[in-house]
């Protein structure tokens, strides 16, 4: 598996898009730091961008790379390799190289700005961890869609729809339900609703860690109670891990039954 | 060497292999013939484990290969259309496959035989169809394996390369290799085939030597013999 990972990783690292992605975060990090002049405020602004952008880029890159490497996969399938090795190796190559662009792209500006002297270092780390989790989750989801759809246009469409649903539509439905049923006790429902969507989960996690949960009102207090303590954060991370493991397990089972 | 036991394969509603049985002995050149869409490539891909049969079993050296992958280290495969990653060079590709298989290889002789030296540092996306096919040949012959499977290997080859290719086939046969190949070029079949397997409608229609096929169809030309089988089938249908 390491060999396949290595080749996919190098292949992506040589591609122009990895640099564009890295430079985007690099420039964004610097620009926001100098505009805000404050690490904590910059983290909040960045959170809003990362929470939407890492899933989008993960989805697009994941499915594009899978379709683009169709020939490479066919070549590998005739070699003495397990299918799991081929697909997990590639998946890790994409997810790790994207995460690296994110971590280095934002890490360098913040380190130069003086992150280490700032108190916000843990918040910043949480931001990077959430971004990395989201990248791994959405690359895996797009890989499943790519493996299940031979038709590129259809696969691409499904992948974008999935992102749109989890990043935008889900929140809309969630809000409508909260308004319609606001006479009932909704804390548990809201909590479960948030755990079910990795984007919402990461957002809530960061907001609560940044101590701006007062903005969230009454439900915020419930979340604070849940996420604020160690157990809450532990559960949140566990659910995010679960969000990676389930799709990866699905990649393995789908790839094992597929004809090439 | 290879034993195929009543395999079935359906793609959606299309039944490609309908209970195909075939056994191939060790050593020699076996040519798989059949009209377009008769299941030649599907059969080959089943042996490679790229297509999973719905029913039946495939044995190589008396071991089932379904859900197995180790056996592929003793097998070389050359795909029908040379699809390679476009943005790497010939050299990088060869080294990558060597690294993945980590077996001793003899690519230097093959590169010389097919005059590929000037292309070694060119990207695969820029190569012509014939040159890609030569790279394909190098990749599938550079490891020492008992079983070599070739899917339409002569597509796009110029006469000189074709001669080198035939020379290579015969020398591999001398070494006791089992070679399984598909082609549509009948003159090549008559020249190289030890045994032919004629696939029709997802089943084996005929298995034997070229002379036997000519005898049962009462034709003295292989092309005519094949055509007469196909015509007869069309009338029966």
Keywords:
heterodimer; A: 260 residues; mainly alpha; 85% helix; 0% strand; globular; B: 237 residues; alpha/beta; Rossmann fold; 6-stranded mixed beta sheet; 4-stranded antiparallel beta sheet; 10 strands
Write a concise synopsis of the structure shown.
The complex is a heterodimer of chains A (260) and B (237). Chain A is built from eleven helices and no strands.
How would you explain this protein's 3D organization?
The complex is a heterodimer of chains A (260) and B (237). The radius of gyration of chain A is 19 Å and the shape is globular. Chain A has one domain. Chain A has 11 helices and no strands. Chain A has helices spanning 2-13, 16-36, 39-68, 70-77, 83-113, 121-148, 152-180, 187-195, 198-209, 217-228, 230-257. With 260 residues, chain A is mainly α. The model of chain A has no long low-confidence stretch (mean pLDDT 87). Chain B is of the alpha/beta class and 237 residues long. Chain B has one domain (2-236): P-loop containing nucleotide triphosphate hydrolases (Rossmann fold, 3-Layer(aba) Sandwich). In chain B, the strands form 2 sheets. A 6-stranded mixed β-sheet of chain B has the order 6-7-8-3-9-10, with helices on both faces. Chain B has a 4-stranded antiparallel β-sheet with strand order 2-1-4-5, with helices on one face. Chain B is globular and about 55 Å long. Chains A and B meet through helix 1 and helix 4 of A and helix 2 of B.
Q: Tell me the distance between the termini of chain B.
A: 35 Å
Q: In what order do the strands lie side by side in the largest sheet of chain B? A: 6-7-8-3-9-10
Biggest sheet features of chain B: 6 strands, mixed
Assign a percent range to the helix content of chain A.
Answer: over 70%
Give the N-terminus to C-terminus distance of chain A in angstroms.
20 Å
Oligomer: heterodimer
Instruction: Label the CATH architecture of chain B.
Output: 3-Layer(aba) Sandwich
Number of strands of chain A: 0
Which radius of gyration of chain B do the C-alpha atoms yield?
18 Å
**Helix percent band of chain B:** 25-40%
Average pLDDT number of chain A: 87
How many distinct domains of chain B? 1
- Tell me the series of helices and strands of chain A, N- to C-terminal: HHHHHHHHHHH
Beta-strand percent range of chain A: under 5%
Q: Which overall shape of chain B is indicated by the principal axes computed on the Cα atoms? A: globular
Can you summarize the main beta sheet of chain A?
Answer: none
